[in-house]
Amino acid sequence: MFRSLFRRFKNGEPLLFGVFIAIAAVAVVLITPPGGVASLAAQGWVQTPQGPLGPADRDLLVKVRLAGLWEIPSGQQAQQKAASKRVKEVGMHLMTDHLKLDEEVRALAAKLNVTLPDQPNADQQGWMAQLAAAKSGAEYDLLFAQLLRAAHGKVFTVVAGVRSGTRHDMVRPFAQRAVEVVMKHMTLLESTGLVDYSDLPEPPMPSPPPPVSALDTPVRREIA
After folding, report:
1. What is this structure's pTM?
2. pLDDT > 90? residue 1
3. Which of 17, 82, 96, 215 would disulfide-bridge 9, Cβ 3.0–4.6 Å?
4. Rounded Cα–Cα distance for residues 221 and 105 (Å)
5. Angle 64-69-74 (CA atoms, 0-180°, nearest 5)?
6. What is the SS3 assignment for 48?
7. Residue 123 has pLDDT above 80, yes or no
């Protein structure tokens, strides 16, 4: 479109060239976020060859790394403490999947210069302590299924949100992979039959519908 307008300007149509300039100016305004580059930098954004890297992108990498730091040892622990064969199988899936995902997240973080944690956070350490203190057998199985399912529900909202809105071409496929892994693990944990859904956080309430403006109201015509 722009090339066509430019050719017509060269053929003696200055008015069209003015339109071309106006369109280009609008495009620049739409592409450049409010506040400019300095404002984005102040908000934690960094421009990279693969697109802008934002705080949510970095948080995704941190959250995935943290998930692996406690789910890998917990999945391994389930092989010794669980009574149910299915819980043992699910624990093995969690462990092996997170070993692979952990390799991916550490490689991506190194490329994007994102610092990752090297130990679980306080909440995760508390969950690991509960599992360690639980008696082997049915008590352990129930606690394992409930703690891991609740944790996956929390991290799912993070990875899904980043997959939906990231501007970064390297983060997007990684977020896709993380979404698939978390969905798989939630389904596996639910397959144990031990998840108490009433104990999970309720889904967020839907946003209220926007008010109907006068322009949206049908015009009624009086019949003579």
Report:
1. 0.74
2. no
3. 17
4. 63
5. 115
6. strand
7. yes
